[in-house]
């Protein structure tokens, strides 16, 4: 055997190792591919050998080849073999290879589950570590589900090295298996206070990553993070926390107030030490804080000031970060950034592209009517200068963004904008042709006054299509031709030389354009043709009309031959149509009117979400079958679908006519009125039925004819010239204006004064666009439903992690546990009591116990973790009948309870509560307003605290707000109030309740002694708001803390139990209850569930049970069932606690 | 940062990259995409001047606007990390520094050929710092301790059987003119000017 091993290793000496491979590749530069394929063959041979060392070596080389871009997925199975090697050396190679080449689609990945589990529980910490590292790269939903529980156990590993890895990987697990988040969260939270800084930082990391996506669920952690922030010395942690606060403050303004001071101090102290990193960090948080508090201008001023220092710094990194931070401020406080425009414009000239991009980003928020043209001009210069398509594309999108923002709010002159767009088409290699096209279409459609100008420009584009198409066919700039063709066709009445344009569109070159553009060409040349026809007919030039028809018939066949279906179909249709027209023309029938009728009516822009927002009419069930689905024959599968679709569309189309005519008229009138009174209203009424209504209110908006003698229409393609000309023109006009009227200000740009001369007095300084251009807003269906839901991306992987973490765990949320790993001799958390597992009679129970033990194993150190849970509820009499039990289980342990038990519990526990309710002083309630449900849980961190979760449900029809919950503290039990408030102050409930809504709030209570049950009186005050006004109401209630609620279900082994009994320092007491008819098993279940005990051992009709209190009292029970009675003997460290517990038990049992 | 891979091109300049296969569902990136990312990143990074900032907004290829490239340049080596907005920019620059210093410690005066010939070791070191795309450890001493412990474990496992193989590889390396120790990656502390230390 040994000989064989040595022989193997000698053989191995002559195998290529990784270094040899690298060397070989470097020596075969000329025929690298050939050399590598040779190596891969060798590797395949090596993988066939039995020797694991040889295999590992081969896999190691494969990993390198993968890095060079070679596919190694064929070796996935061998990689798994190496992963399962017993030696760490090989295992590491295997896991590395797996992390590089495994992904969700790798089918063998499921074979790794057991291997990984084995490694995770390996005694060697590095085996575990390497498995965690590997898993973090290729975790799949299946692996996450199967291993979540194992990883969770590792979070409490004794070695910090493992703990930190386990904590960190949980984020990956959450992403893949969101169900694990809630069960794992309490432990994750614990890790925030881990003694090891590495583990702590990992936990902060994970929670910050989670909170970044769904901050509102993590608000409750704010105090903890605040503490960490003030105490932590680790900059990594600090920055993460500050970032987290950045996300939290907008949701909780009070937090911002609290943070502002320490952070301002932080900035000041950092600036003294020139610790710019610190400044960066704190500035970034101040920014996010300020978004939560719009009025804190002092801090914003400070921020901007500090940022300016950063931006002016010679260090490019700081400059970049300064700009980045500035853009965050811009979102909330545009004013304070705008004053630094000079600085930002200066950054546009920076040699560093990253910085220019940042500056660009800022410009977006800084434009105004005044400076838009100036800024865009600057940007256009940059576009010309720019190298590299990325930056150029970025510039292009920015220009368009800047101009089109808020519905073209800042554009005072659309001719200028159109020429900018036209000029942008000269950009070679841009990916954003479609963007420009969309803008052209949008402007031409929505700004009526500009159409004539736009059409002339577009005609020019079409004329020069060869330049555009040949320059950048691949890069999509030819998309603008789509827009150009459509605009020329649709608004052909504005076209001066339609003939020429039509000819341009019919050029053979056009057939090289992408199909969808050709299709638009074909469609629009008919529109063009129609308008030419009409022109000619009106002018009586029959010859010319026939000529144009002849031209169409000659040229159209080239489109009929197109490979693109759409083009072909449209072309052949139209060809036939035109042939028919020709026939009519020969017969000298006037056809123009009819042809033009084909394209009558105007197209209105429809808002992108309009269709979605059409409310479903009453009585229409979109899910109902309109036609019964046909029988299950496969071939007909598609038929019902089409029927259904058609029907659906028809519905939405017919919806509007269905509205009562009178109502429609009324609405129209109201709208007109509103428009008439609103000078800033920028929508005209283009729909046909309104066009002939000569209401001055709508029609007063003059559609200005633009004087085209002004050389705005610059012919030819050299656009930069044109741009210069435009500029000159603009300046010239400004001068003219100034000459005319001194008070006219600079902002009145070129071209404008034409309009003013003809239409307006020139005294207006800031002209709202509505006065000279009418921008048609996008159409929305009337009574559209206001909803923002559609903004959410349903595919967002982080959405699944939007989970309410404060809600206690439900039974169904347990992590799946592997059963075969039961270890029989584990110790219970309390190591002083050696426990031995008892043979459980219920298999289900057994599983759960095992689970507990596995968890407990990891928890040895934190044995003081207590959970108390009490489920109880209490209601006002008004809501008694509406009781809704809300169950909560926060800690895993409480999950021992079975669902079935839970149900029985419901019916059983309620009667005693009604008794309690009977003792309440029932305030007469004017409105049956509020139902409360609560439950009490032990606090994990503290053995003298319990958390009471109260669910408030508004049963009234009024709105409830300003709720405040107050409790009359007893000596023993006190409600935890925020610092500084007196015992008489209530705690405000952090939400309001609309009718029928329920929400949950948590309150923490501290306890001195737990040996007695407690009752606390409390009051809930709130304001009821309804139509008649608001009234102040109160609701009294009682909180009942039973002794059982202080117990935690703790498993115990029978010999430990025996020892405990023998020890003799326990007090004894017993009770007997008669008239018990239920089965013994049922009875035990009841005790387990209601009183948080676990069964230690059961023999026939006799069982021993165990539980512990949050303060560490052991409670042992011996339950014996007689003929018709049950006797319970109890032993406990504290006699009072015992007798109280037994009393409670008696009460429960007597209800049986 | 969610996942990473290493890359060294066998050219003059070396590009060591950490790239996101981010949390998006289209995580399955073929080797081709990987190579493309590396090529383009290298292209972007290598043409940048010396005294510009260390951040690059990479665009679509690296997963959209939330992600950016953060790099540092040491002589012939580029260390490029691709991170999302949850990471602090200066923090990552510091992390790269820690990484390079760690490499320097583990390889004893590291040179670029060390990295080329021992990619696996570089991976192992990186695995102690970054896990599944998240920063795991930033304390260099801790990282070095763990790496040393693992190396020790590896040695003890190799034991007698490993000795001949080691000897052979030592011999192989001996008559190798192409491993000059003098190609150092340069003075690692001077390359990034004006950066305050980041504790």
From TrEMBL, chain A:
Keyword field contains Magnesium: no
InterPro entries, alphabetized: AP3_complex_dsu, AP3D_dom_metazoa, ARM-like, ARM-type_fold, Clathrin/coatomer_adapt-like_N, Mu_AP3
Gene Ontology cellular-component annotations: AP-3 adaptor complex; axon cytoplasm; endosome membrane; Golgi membrane; presynaptic endosome; terminal bouton
Biased amino acid composition, Acidic residues: 776-793
Keywords: Acetylation, Coiled coil, Cytoplasm, Golgi apparatus, Membrane, Phosphoprotein, Protein transport, Repeat, Transport
Basic and acidic residues composition-biased segments: 638-674, 727-739, 794-838, 853-868
The AP-3 complex subunit delta domain, residue ranges: 659-806
GO term, biological process aspect, one: protein targeting to vacuole
Topology with respect to the bilayer: Peripheral membrane protein
Primary localisation category: cytoplasm
Record-linked Gene3D superfamilies: Leucine-rich Repeat Variant, Longin domain
Pfam families reported in the protein's UniProt record: Adaptin_N, AP3D1, Mu_AP3
Residue segments, region Disordered: 621-695, 727-926
Localization, UniProt: Cytoplasm; Golgi apparatus membrane
Protein transport as UniProt keyword: yes
Biased composition range(s): Basic residues: 740-758, 839-852, 877-888, 896-905
Similarity field: Belongs to the adaptor complexes large subunit family.
Entry function: Part of the AP-3 complex, an adaptor-related complex which is not clathrin-associated. The complex is associated with the Golgi region as well as more peripheral structures. It facilitates the budding of vesicles from the Golgi membrane and may be directly involved in trafficking to lysosomes. Involved in process of CD8+ T-cell and NK cell degranulation. In concert with the BLOC-1 complex, AP-3 is required to target cargos into vesicles assembled at cell bodies for delivery into neurites and nerve terminals.
Name of this chain's protein: AP-3 complex subunit delta-1
Species assigned in the record: Ficedula albicollis (Collared flycatcher)
Phylogenetic placement of the source organism: Eukaryota, Metazoa, Chordata, Craniata, Vertebrata
UniProtKB/TrEMBL annotation, chain B:
SUPFAM superfamilies (alphabetical): SNARE-like
Pfam families per UniProt: Clat_adaptor_s
Known role: Part of the AP-3 complex, an adaptor-related complex which is not clathrin-associated. The complex is associated with the Golgi region as well as more peripheral structures. It facilitates the budding of vesicles from the Golgi membrane and may be directly involved in trafficking to lysosomes. In concert with the BLOC-1 complex, AP-3 is required to target cargos into vesicles assembled at cell bodies for delivery into neurites and nerve terminals.
Cellular localization per UniProt: Cytoplasmic vesicle membrane; Golgi apparatus
Single GO BP term: Golgi to vacuole transport
Highest classification ranks of the organism: Eukaryota, Metazoa, Chordata, Craniata, Vertebrata
Family listed: Belongs to the adaptor complexes small subunit family.
Family matches, as InterPro entries: AP_complex_ssu, AP_mu_sigma_su, APS3, Clathrin_sm-chain_CS, Longin-like_dom_sf
Entry keyword set: Cytoplasmic vesicle, Golgi apparatus, Membrane, Protein transport, Transport
CDD domains: AP3_sigma
Protein name (Swiss-Prot/TrEMBL): Adaptor related protein complex 3 subunit sigma 1
Coiled coil: none
Membrane-related topology note: Peripheral membrane protein
One of the record's GO cellular component terms: cytoplasmic vesicle membrane
Sequence ranges assigned to domain AP complex mu/sigma subunit in this UniProt record: 30-153
Listed PANTHER family: ADAPTOR COMPLEXES SMALL SUBUNIT FAMILY
Domain of life from the UniProt record: Eukaryota
């Amino acid at each position: 055997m040994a000989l064989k091993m040595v022989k193997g290793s000698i053989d191995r000496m002559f195998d290529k190792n990784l270094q040899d491979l690298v060397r070989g590749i470097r020596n075969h530069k000329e025929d690298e591919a050939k050399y590598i394929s040779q190596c891969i063959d060798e590797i395949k041979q090596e993988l066939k050998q039995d020797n694991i060392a040889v295999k590992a070596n081969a896999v190691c080389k494969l990993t390198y080849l993968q890095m060079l871009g070679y596919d190694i997925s064929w070796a996935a199975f061998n990689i798994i073999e190496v992963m399962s090697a017993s030696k760490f050396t090989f295992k590491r190679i295997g896991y590395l290879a797996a992390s590089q080449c495994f992904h969700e689609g790798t089918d063998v990945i499921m074979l790794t589950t057991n291997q990984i589990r084995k490694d995770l529980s390996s005694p060697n910490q590095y085996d575990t570590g390497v498995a965690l590292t590997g898993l973090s790269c290729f975790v799949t939903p299946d692996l996450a589900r199967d291993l979540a529980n194992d990883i969770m156990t590792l979070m409490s590993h004794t070695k910090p090295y493992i703990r930190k890895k386990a904590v960190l990987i949980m984020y990956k697990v959450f992403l893949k298996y969101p169900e694990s988040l809630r069960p794992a969260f309490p432990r994750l939270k614990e890790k925030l206070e881990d003694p090891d800084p590495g583990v702590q930082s990992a936990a902060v990391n994970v929670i910050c990553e989670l909170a970044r996506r769904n901050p509102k669920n993590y608000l409750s952690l704010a105090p903890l993070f605040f503490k960490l922030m003030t105490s932590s010395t680790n900059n990594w942690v600090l920055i993460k926390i500050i970032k987290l606060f950045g996300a939290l403050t907008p949701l909780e303004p009070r937090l911002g107030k609290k943070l502002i001071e320490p952070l301002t101090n932080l900035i000041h102290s950092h600036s003294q030490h020139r610790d710019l990193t610190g400044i960066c960090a704190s500035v970034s948080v101040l920014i996010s804080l300020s978004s939560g508090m719009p009025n804190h201008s002092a801090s914003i001023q400070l921020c901007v000031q500090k940022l300016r220092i950063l931006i002016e710094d010679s260090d490019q990194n700081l400059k970049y970060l300064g700009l980045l931070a500035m853009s965050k401020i811009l979102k909330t406080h545009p004013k304070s950034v705008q004053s630094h425009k000079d600085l930002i414009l200066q950054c546009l000239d920076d040699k560093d592209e990253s910085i220019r991009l940042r500056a660009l980003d800022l410009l977006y928020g800084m434009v105004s009517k005044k400076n838009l043209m100036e800024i865009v001009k600057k940007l256009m210069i940059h576009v010309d200068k720019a190298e590299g398509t990325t930056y150029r594309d970025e510039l292009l999108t920015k220009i368009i963004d800047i101009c089109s923002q808020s519905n073209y709010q800042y554009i005072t002159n659309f001719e200028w904008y159109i020429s900018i767009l036209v000029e942008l088409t000269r950009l070679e290699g841009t990916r954003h042709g479609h963007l420009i096209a969309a803008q052209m279409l949008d402007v031409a459609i929505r700004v009526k006054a500009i159409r004539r100008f736009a059409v002339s420009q577009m005609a020019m584009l079409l004329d020069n299509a060869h330049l555009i198409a040949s320059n950048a066919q691949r890069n999509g700039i030819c998309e603008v031709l789509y827009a150009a063709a459509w605009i020329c066709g649709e608004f052909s009445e504005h076209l001066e030389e339609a003939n020429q344009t039509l000819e341009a569109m019919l050029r053979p070159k056009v057939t090289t354009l992408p199909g969808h553009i050709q299709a638009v060409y074909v469609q629009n040349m008919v529109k063009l043709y129609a308008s030419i026809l009409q022109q000619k007919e009106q002018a009586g030039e029959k010859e010319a009309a026939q000529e144009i028809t002849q031209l169409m018939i000659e040229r159209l066949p080239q489109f009929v031959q197109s490979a693109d279906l759409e083009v072909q179909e449209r072309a052949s249709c139209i060809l036939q149509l035109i042939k028919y027209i020709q026939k009519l023309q020969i017969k000298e029938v006037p056809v123009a009117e009819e042809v033009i009728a084909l394209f009558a009516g105007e197209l209105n822009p429809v808002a992108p979400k309009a269709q979605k927002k059409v409310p479903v009419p009453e009585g229409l069930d979109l899910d109902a079958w309109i036609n019964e689905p046909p029988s299950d024959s496969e071939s007909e599968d598609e038929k019902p679908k089409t029927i259904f679709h058609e029907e659906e569309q028809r519905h939405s189309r017919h919806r509007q006519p269905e509205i009562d005519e009178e109502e429609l008229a009324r609405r129209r009138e109201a709208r007109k009125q509103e428009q008439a009174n609103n000078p800033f209203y920028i929508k005209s009424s283009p729909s046909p039925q309104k066009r002939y209504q000569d209401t001055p209110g709508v029609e007063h908006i003059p559609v200005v004819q633009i004087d085209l003698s002004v050389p705005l229409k610059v012919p030819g393609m050299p656009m930069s010239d044109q741009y210069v000309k435009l500029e000159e023109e603009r300046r010239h006009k400004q001068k003219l204006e100034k000459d005319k009227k001194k008070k006219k200000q600079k902002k009145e740009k070129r071209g404008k004064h034409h309009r003013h001369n003809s239409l307006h007095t020139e005294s207006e300084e800031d002209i709202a666009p509505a006065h000279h251009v009418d921008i048609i807003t996008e159409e929305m269906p009337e009574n559209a439903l206001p909803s923002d839901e559609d903004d959410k991306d349903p595919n967002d992987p982080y959405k699944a992690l939007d989970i309410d973490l404060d809600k206690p765990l439900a039974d169904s949320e347990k992590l799946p546990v592997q059963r075969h790993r039961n270890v029989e001799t584990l110790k219970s958390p309390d190591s002083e009591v050696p426990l031995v597992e008892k043979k459980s009679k219920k298999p289900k129970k057994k599983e759960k116990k095992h689970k507990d033990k596995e968890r407990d194993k990891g928890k040895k150190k934190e044995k003081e973790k207590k959970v108390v849970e009490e489920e109880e509820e209490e209601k006002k009499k008004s809501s008694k009948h509406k009781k809704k039990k809300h169950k909560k289980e926060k800690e895993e342990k409480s999950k021992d309870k079975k669902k079935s038990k839970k149900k029985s519990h419901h019916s059983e526990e309620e009667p005693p509560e009604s008794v309690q309710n009977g003792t309440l002083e029932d305030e007469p309630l004017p409105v049956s307003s509020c139902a409360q449900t609560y439950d009490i849980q032990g606090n994990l961190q503290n053995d003298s605290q319990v958390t009471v979760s109260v669910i408030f449900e508004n049963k009234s029809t009024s709105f409830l707000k300003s709720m405040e919950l107050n409790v009359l503290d007893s000596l023993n039990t006190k409600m935890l109030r925020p610092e500084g408030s007196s015992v008489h102050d209530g705690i405000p409930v952090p939400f309001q309740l609309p009718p029928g809504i329920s929400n949950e709030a948590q309150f923490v209570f501290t306890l001195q002694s737990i040996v007695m049950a407690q009752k606390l009186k409390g009051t809930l005050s709130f304001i009821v708001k309804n139509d008649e006004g608001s009234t102040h109401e109160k609701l009294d209630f009682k909180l009942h803390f039973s002794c059982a609620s202080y117990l935690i279900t703790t498993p115990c082994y029978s010999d430990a139990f025996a020892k405990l009994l023998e020890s003799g320092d326990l007090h004894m007491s017993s009770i007997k209850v008669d008239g018990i008819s239920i089965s013994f098993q049922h009875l035990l279940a009841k005790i387990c569930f209601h009183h948080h005990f676990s069964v230690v051992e059961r023999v026939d009709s006799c069982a021993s049970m165990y539980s512990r209190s949050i303060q560490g009292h052991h409670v042992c029970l011996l339950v014996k069932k007689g003929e018709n009675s049950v006797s319970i003997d109890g032993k406990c460290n504290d006699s009072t606690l015992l007798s109280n517990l037994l009393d409670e038990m008696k009460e429960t049992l007597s209800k049986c | 940062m969610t996942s990473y891979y290493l890359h060294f091109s066998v050219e003059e300049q070396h590009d060591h990259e950490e790239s996101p296969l981010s949390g998006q569902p289209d995580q399955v990136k073929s080797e081709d995409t990987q190579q493309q990312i590396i090529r383009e990143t290298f292209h972007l990074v290598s043409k940048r001047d010396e005294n510009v900032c260390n951040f690059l907004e990479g665009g679509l290829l690296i997963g959209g606007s939330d992600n950016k490239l953060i790099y540092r340049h040491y002589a012939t080596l580029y260390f490029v990390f691709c991170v999302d907005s949850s990471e602090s920019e200066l923090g990552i620059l510091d992390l790269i520094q820690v990484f390079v210093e760690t490499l320097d410690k583990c390889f004893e005066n590291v040179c670029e050929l060390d990295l080329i010939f021992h990619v696996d070791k570089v991976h192992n070191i990186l695995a102690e710092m970054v896990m599944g795309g998240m920063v795991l450890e930033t304390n260099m001493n801790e990282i070095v301790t763990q790496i040393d412990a693992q190396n020790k474990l590896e040695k003890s496992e190799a034991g007698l059987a490993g000795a001949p193989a080691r000897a052979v590889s030592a011999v192989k390396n001996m008559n190798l003119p192409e491993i000059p120790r003098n190609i150092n990656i340069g003075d690692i502390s001077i390359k990034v000017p004006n950066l305050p230390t980041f504790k």
